[in-house]
Amino acid sequence: MDVKTLYENLKKIQEPKGYFFNKDKDLVFELLDSLIKNKERYGYMACPCRLASGDREWDKDITCPCEYREEDAKEFGACFCGLYVSKDLHEGRVEARYIPERRPVEKIM
């Protein structure tokens, strides 16, 4: 799969759920390319902003969209890597903020 196809597929799935791609399309395409590479490398699309172990079960919390996305988007307007943003951030009602790492320390390599 190429980046543009992944972009279109995910956009159709995520926007109805209230998650939008970051307006920085260069960043989005770079992150999507990294997701594709992680899929080729590990067999699953691990978050490109975190170090994957190669163990699908261990990394299920960081398989995109990660399990932290919803909480991050509610609290900070975007997910940790900035790929997805909330509707409020997308429409300019809130400003982007620093997003702290939520992944437990024992899972960070």
Summarize the structure.
With 109 residues, the chain is mostly helical. It is built from four helices and two strands. The protein has helices at residues 3-14, 25-42, 69-76, 87-90, and strands at 19-21, 84-86.
3D structure, described in words:
This protein has 4 helices and 2 strands, in the order H-E-H-H-E-H. With 109 residues, it is mainly α. It has a single domain (3-107), classed as Alpha-Beta Complex (Ferredoxin Thioredoxin Reductase). A two-stranded antiparallel sheet has the order 1-2. Helix 1 (3-14) packs across helix 2. It is globular, with a radius of gyration of 13 Å.
What percentage of residues falls in helices of 4 or more residues? 25-40%
* Structural class label: mainly alpha
What Rg do the Cα atoms give? 13 Å
User: How would you classify the quaternary structure?
Assistant: single chain
- Please provide the ordered H/E string of secondary-structure elements: HEHHEH
Widest beta sheet: strand line-up:
1-2
* Overall pLDDT score: 96
Strand content: 5-15%
Low-confidence stretches: none
Instruction: State the name of the first-level CATH class.
Output: Alpha Beta
How many helices does DSSP assign?
4
- Global shape: globular
| Annotated CATH topology | Ferredoxin Thioredoxin Reductase
CATH superfamily: Ferredoxin thioredoxin reductase catalytic beta subunit
Defining traits:
2 strands, 109 residues, globular, two-stranded antiparallel ribbon, mainly alpha, single chain, Ferredoxin Thioredoxin Reductase
Question: How is this fold's topology laid out?
Answer:
Elements: H1 3-14, E1 19-21, H2 25-42, H3 69-76, E2 84-86, H4 87-90
Antiparallel strand pairs: 1-2
Helix pairs in contact: 1-2
